[in-house]
Every structure is written in structure tokens, then in C-alpha cells.
Amino acid sequence: MIRELGEPGDLGWVVKAHGEIYAKEYGWDTSFEALVARIVADYANGRDPERENAWVAEIGGRRAGSVFCVDAGEDDTAVLRILLVTPQARGHGVGGQLVDTCVAFAKAAGYARMRLWTNDPLVAARHIYLKRGFRLTGEQKHRSFGADLVGQTYELALR
Predict the structure, then answer these.
(1) Residue 118 in contact with residue 142, Cβ under 8 Å?
(2) Whole-model pTM?
């Protein structure tokens, strides 16, 4: 089940789940969790409900994933942020459902395009994005979260 974020504990769960899962799976340090905390706090403190939303996936009544759609503040662009699917929920189509929900919202809100930024180790997420028509528009090596990474920007035309 995909539902709008908004139940008590949702915001904290998004931050905690990102921090724990990315540390365990990729060895990323707490600077990644801090980035997610800033994204979540910015959303919670300044959300425009006509242009921004977030969702939580649940399986058996337990949180299993999340995704955010936020306004880029430029060029009529929406930004897909902090997609996550818990290890227990993978392989059930949860990631695709979350992305589809996010893209549908952005289209309905009138955005012309959607952009996202990810990193090269996130292969499953990249597969979801490419399957839905996102195109790689840029790559840049960087050191973040205690790791050497290649940041990747993807875009999807919505109109």
C-alpha cells in the first residue's frame, strides 16, 4: 500500500531508515543521514501542498519505503528525492510503485520535467528510473558520505 506521508513517526522513520540501511549496505557515514534529515526538515517546514508531496509504502502495516516530490524552484521542474525501499520489501515492485506515484503527482501538479540525483552504487534504483523513461544527463565524481562515488543526474520530460 502506498499512502501519503503524514502519520506520527513517518518523518523520523524516513531519516532513520536511510541512515541505517545506507550505512549497512554501502558503508556510508552519518553525513548521509544528516543530508536526509535536512531534506525531510525542509519538506516538513515549508511544503507547498499543491506542488510537493511525499509517500510511504507499507507492507503488512509496516513502513517499507518512501519517496518525496519537491519543487526545484526553477524551470518548472520537480525533484524526486530520497527514494528508499527496505531490504525486506525489495522484489515486490514497491520502488516502482513509489516512483510511479511521485511522477503521477508531478504531472498532475503541472511540472514540465522531473529531475533526480543519485549515486552509482544504487543499481536497483537506476533500473527503476530508466524503465520509466528517465535519461542520464550528467555524472560527476565526488567524495561524500565517507565514500568515493559518481553522482548521477537523471531527467524525465513530463509533458
Answers:
(1) no
(2) 0.96
